[in-house]
Amino acid sequence: MSDKITDWDPSTPILQIDNLSISFFTRMREIPAVMDFSCTVRAGEAMGLVGESGCGKSTVALAVMRDLGKNGRITGGRILFKGRDLTTMSDEELRHIRGSEIAMIYQEPMASLNPAMKIGAQLAEVPMIHEGMGRDAAWKLARQIVADVRLPDPDRILGSYPHQLSGGQQQRIVIAMALMSKPALLILDEPTTALDVTVEAGIVDLVKDLGEKYGTSMLFISHNLGLVMDVCDRICVMYSGEAVETGNVTEVFDKMRHPYTQALFRSIPLPGADKNSRPLISIPGNFPLPHERPPGCNFGPRCDYFEKGRCDAADIPMSAVPDSDRHGSRCLKWAEIDWTAPPAARVAKVKTPIGKVVLKMDDLKKYYSVSSGAFGGGSKKVVKANETLSFEAHEGETLAIVGESGCGKSTFAKVLMGLETATSGSIMLFDENVQSTPIQKRNTDTVSRVQMVFQNPFDTLNPSMNVGRQIIRALEIFKFGNSDQDRHNRMLELLDLVKLPRAFAERMPRQLSGGQKQRVGIARAFAGGAKVVVADEPVSALDVSVQAAVTDLLMDIQRENKTTLLFISHDLSIVRYLSDRVLVMYLGHVVETGTTDQVFAPPYHPYTEALLSAVPIADTHITRKRIVLEGDIPSALNPPPGCPFQTRCRWKSQVPGGLCDREMPPMRDIGGGHQIKCHLSAEILEKMEPVIKIAAE
Amino acid sequence: MFPFVLRRLGLMLLTAFVLTFAVFCLTNLQPNLEKLARSEGSVRMSDDAIASWIVNNGHGGPMLKRYGEWLGVVPGWVRTDDKGVTRGRCIVDGSDPAQAATYCGILQGNWGYSTFAKVPVTTVLGRSLGHTGWLMLAVMVVMVPTALLLGVLSGMREGTRLDRILSTLAIVTTATPEYVSGVIFVALFASATVGISPHLHDWGWITEKTLFQGTATSAMDDITWRNFTLPVMTIALYGIGYIARMTRASMTEVMTQQYIRTARLKGVSFRQVVMKHALRNALIAPFTVIMLQFPWLLNGVVIVETLFNYKGFGWTLVQAAGNNDINLLLACSVVAVFVVLVTQLISDVGYVFLNPRIRLA
């Protein structure tokens, strides 16, 4: 008893979506989420669905699963899967297809696994439902698939609960679950967004290999163009509920025929972009709300090529690009636009001079002690969150601190801000030692000069206070000005500074978009004339087109105020784009530091090398060496002896005498202030090849 | 796990001391003792006589010392009166004072003598707890499964007609206090003149005058449908509504979780989604609530036992309070404290087993 559809001709598309329209119905109105969407996925093909949040890409995926919730309804078009229309299927028929023919992989692995059920039971359930397999056989299959997704010690994993696994392992389990019944179509909804880059690289490799091994077709949803280029054969770019461009990956990346695709590519930091000479170009304006879409072309109001009376006259159909591999564009003017012309708006900016040292950390350590027993008690253990952290930051400089989750970069920020005090070592801020002064005891002047921009703009603004009040509150705390009038005026200036209209002072945070909220966060941080700003992943929660605008804003303010920016990020593309110097951290240690050019070119620290190779780059001219790190980051509770990176290092065998296992490598200078914490000899470092190569055009 | 339970037990002991001391102080206030002297001695005693009665019967002296005596960590009082008769806390009337124990508090098993029932407190308490035990068991058996079923049924499809109906029902039952629902039940089912009983009798469906009995006194000897249904239903009804609401809230939340979507998109049938994936997760929150119901039940039985004249713990508590029976009142509070603390411990430990993510610290 199997649920598989057998009467299907493999030469026809496995998934064919024709003119699909989906709406959500609220009490007030019908909100169209997806309009006139068509796409075709052939057997063995991987289709990428790209777009910013709210563009409807996840809605399309859920429509294929026919799981749109209570208010969502398919209002037009059809979805053919293996020649059968999914939109007219009964619940019972759908149930047979879900999990057996079409499987889905989700964004947040932790949330998508049942916390109270063992992994094995969750996996074995799939063949037991669809193939009527016995319990023992199903567990055996589960064991085999768990080994297939390259998880160590499958037996232990089958018997554990989801919370006992790391994020990367959980995602592998979700993938294993999707593969249990060897589905014909796999839908991946941002499968790696919640994971670290090196873990992401492993997952992406796995998905690609399994796709080839089982011949599974894929619908890959992502906002990351580089990732789509890595995984997919074909791509479909969505904007505001419509597919705007579709075609094979190389054609769309190299010969895009829609202004939105072009704008999107211009707003992401590719190698070669530079904050001074070749700044990013953000897309002007905002994403239209679903019930406020403009007439005609949805992208019209933000488009450089917009022609009044023509682009906003009527709905625009998808038109095919001749002499291409099923390439189509939803633009009236695609044939008239000169696609090779350089962007007009690009203005080169002056590089800020780097001034004197404003922040100096010397041999900073931060340890936490935690108890290990399950019911409390037990022996005390020490987490070494930061070990021997030494560096200097100069006025007007952007220093990037790079590393994956758990490397200690946020702890460092907390110690600097005074939310925690250092275990040992010193922090010289201007001319003051602040390592053991908690923020409550710092004077107003110090507090206002060191400020932070937080990662998640959605949670860091008080939801019940209007924007102006929040900024004035910061000014009051910093004891700025003599009267309320002074502070009100300064608040309006700050809004100007972050390029928000002055009328926004009266708005509540919920009335702002993510990018606008982050601007308020920046205004608040600069309220007291901050000289050092710690930006903890300031743009990672924002959409690509908004990211560019917010980074540019930060850079502009830095230029004006000569601010020192400590940019904490895991995103190497943006780090290369905006930072002057880079600090790479791993397990609490700084493993490499130097200017951006030094760090991004060989010789590398082996960890930096792996990190660089893991970042997907959305450029077809670039070839990247694939280095996939095995395993997870070791726990800071129980760090490996010797070099912290030795458990995952591919160069370890090049160091004679097992030195890496025994001794912590010293920090050494390999020329021009470029420092590396590694045992590798100078000759071997010399021979390292660049990870990223730009092919000649 | 073991050190955790040990720690909790220690904490419980401390709580028990504090609570019993508070009750001891309140019941041993001067006016209370004077009242006791009048009821035990003579109503027409002079103020001086009352004062000496209090001292002579071991109720004088510092509060802490008396509490220690009651607990059994301080030697019991011994006093020889003018007639040369030696009396004391530990001396049974008529026995040799020399042979009596020095300590005789609750730690030695001496809970004192009930002035109201004229028997040792342990006898009264044992009997009444036995009665209440049966009542509580019946209530739990009816209440928990019904409430969970109602909660799960209304929570699994939020906003449907079934959900609305069950929710309204649950709100109505929780909003009705026992003394109201009890009276309504008696009128409806246990009256020979109003309610449904006369009709049922006329139609010949029941042989007795009433469907159920309005008093549960006979249930103390022999529990039957007729005498036990109404008290059980009165207590259970309130709890059903309450637990059902909790379960519904928990269930609706679980049903919106991503792992439920995962299960649905794996092709698991709705029935199995509810049974295998949602239920265990949804029961974690109501479990604590159910455990909290035990102490609350002790509360509920006060009203219901008095209403239905069922001589259990609640009835005894009311009588002890009404008749100024200090020892009995103290014993009741010890039992209550014990029940509350033990159920809390069970609830915390059980929570760990239900929820694999929780580690108690």
From TrEMBL, chain A:
Keyword Ion transport: no
Domain ABC transporter, chain residue ranges per copy: 15-265, 359-612
Superkingdom as given in the UniProt entry: Bacteria
Keywords tagged on the record: ATP-binding, Cell inner membrane, Cell membrane, Membrane, Nucleotide-binding, Translocase, Transport
InterPro entries, A to Z: AAA+_ATPase, ABC_Ni/Peptide_Import, ABC_transporter-like_ATP-bd, ABC_transporter-like_CS, Oligopep_ABC_C, P-loop_NTPase
Localization (cell): Cell inner membrane
PROSITE patterns tied to this protein: ABC_TRANSPORTER_1, ABC_TRANSPORTER_2
Keyword Metal-binding: no
Annotated GO biological process: peptide transport; transmembrane transport
GO molecular function terms attached to this record: ATP binding; ATP hydrolysis activity
Name the record gives this protein: ABC transporter ATP-binding protein
Organism in which the protein naturally occurs: Fuscibacter oryzae
Automatic annotation (TrEMBL), chain B:
Any Gene Ontology CC annotation: plasma membrane
UniProt-listed Pfam families: BPD_transp_1 (PF00528)
Topology in the lipid bilayer: Multi-pass membrane protein
Coiled coil regions in record: none
GO BP of this protein: transmembrane transport
Subcellular location(s) of the protein: Cell membrane
TM stretches of this protein: 134-153, 165-190, 228-245, 283-308, 328-354
PANTHER family xrefs: INNER MEMBRANE ABC TRANSPORTER, OLIGOPEPTIDE TRANSPORT SYSTEM PERMEASE PROTEIN APPB
UniProt protein name: ABC transporter permease
